[in-house]
Amino acid sequence: MDKHSLKELQIFLDIATEAAMAAGIVLENHFGKLEQIEEKGRSGDLVTEADKKAEKQVLEVLNRHVPNHQILAEESGLLEKSDSSYLWAIDPLDGTTNYAHGYPIFAVSIGLLIEGKPMVGVVYNPARGELFRAAKDIGATCNRRPIRVSQTTELARSLLVTGFAYDRRETNDNNYAEFCHLTHLTQGVRRSGSASCDLTDVACGRVDGYWERGLKPWDIAAGIIIVEEAGGKITAYDGTALDINSGRILASNPQIHSSLSQSLKETPSR
Ligand code: IPD
Ligand code: CA
Ligand code: CA
């Protein structure tokens, strides 16, 4: 990547940070004081006034700085613009169920895909006071300090994290079998309730790996580049290149990646 592009990415990283901080103020202000909690189509899939107001803040910042870029935002859908090679994938509040219960694991997640590849990402959790940032070839930081994935070399010594999508009651492919299988093979599997926080926990080495199904690009776009720039590996479950629209992701430090992939494959059938 040439210097001009790095400079361009730095500018986009600063724009994403400005948008995340603006949304973060909304999330902070409403935390523990929600007035409206609605269910979206599916039972358990919540939306609050904080999701909507935070998204408005992000859109305002992006429309001011990059009015021609496409936007895919969880609450507004796809906003088509003239420059289709740039797509911002936004989750204004990732971890809404946690947030609605006053459980402090949630974040605003803002990723920029250029020609389909995650290139810039910011994940901000105001309750933990953690701002994760990364851009391609620029590195990954938490609160401006460089971060790296863990050094764990064996699955048996690893701590993992995963999640269960809102359709878990409607399908047998709900990740329960994989959760049990990996729980037996590792030191533990956590479930935090925020995909973007799971990815940033991989990036800073708090957990060694993460997998999940049923995800949307806005859940993972920012976290992908943050993990990659922290030295982690991101693929599909089978170790092949990730399709961000597939809904499935496997993220870990490079040392345990292939055994994690193999163990997912060997999960006893449901
Ligand atoms: C959810 C969280 C959760 C994951 C779900 C997501 P939301 O996002 O990331 O960890 O398990 O699949 O939909 O609804 O809180 O933005
Ligand atoms: Ca989400
Ligand atoms: Ca959300």
How would you explain this protein's 3D organization?
By secondary structure, this protein is α+β, with helices and mostly antiparallel strands. It folds into 2 domains: 3-146, Fructose-1,6-Bisphosphatase, Chain A, domain 1 (2-Layer Sandwich); 155-265, D-Maltodextrin-Binding Protein, domain 2, CATH 3.40.190.80. It is 34% helix and 27% strand. The protein is built from 7 helices and 15 strands. The chain has helices at residues 3-30, 49-65, 96-100, 176-185, 195-203, 217-229, 257-265; strands spanning 37-39, 46-48, 69-73, 77-79, 83-94, 107-114, 117-125, 130-135, 139-142, 145-146, 159-162, 188-191, 209-212, 233-235, 249-252. An 8-stranded mixed beta sheet has the order 4-3-5-6-7-8-9-10, sandwiched between helices. A 5-stranded mixed beta sheet has the order 12-11-13-15-14, with helices on both faces. One calcium ion (CA) binds next to strand 5.
Count the helices. How many?
7
State the CATH superfamily name of the largest domain: Fructose-1,6-Bisphosphatase, subunit A, domain 1
Query: Rough shape?
Result: globular
Count of distinct structural domains: 2
- List the bound ligands: D-MYO-inositol-1-phosphate, calcium ion
The CATH class of the largest domain is Alpha Beta
Whole-angstrom Rg = 18 Å
User: Main β-sheet, in a few words?
Assistant: 8 strands, mixed
Which residue ranges are poorly predicted, with pLDDT under 50 across at least 5 consecutive positions?
Answer: none
Distance between the termini: 45 Å
Strand content: 25-35%
The helix/strand class is alpha+beta
Gross CATH architecture of the largest domain: 2-Layer Sandwich
Mean pLDDT across all amino acids: 94
Number of strands: 15
Sheet with most strands: strand arrangement: 4-3-5-6-7-8-9-10
Topology as H/E string?
Answer: HEEHEEEHEEEEEEHEHEHEEH
CATH T-level fold name of the largest domain: Fructose-1,6-Bisphosphatase, Chain A, domain 1
Please bin the fraction of helical residues: 25-40%
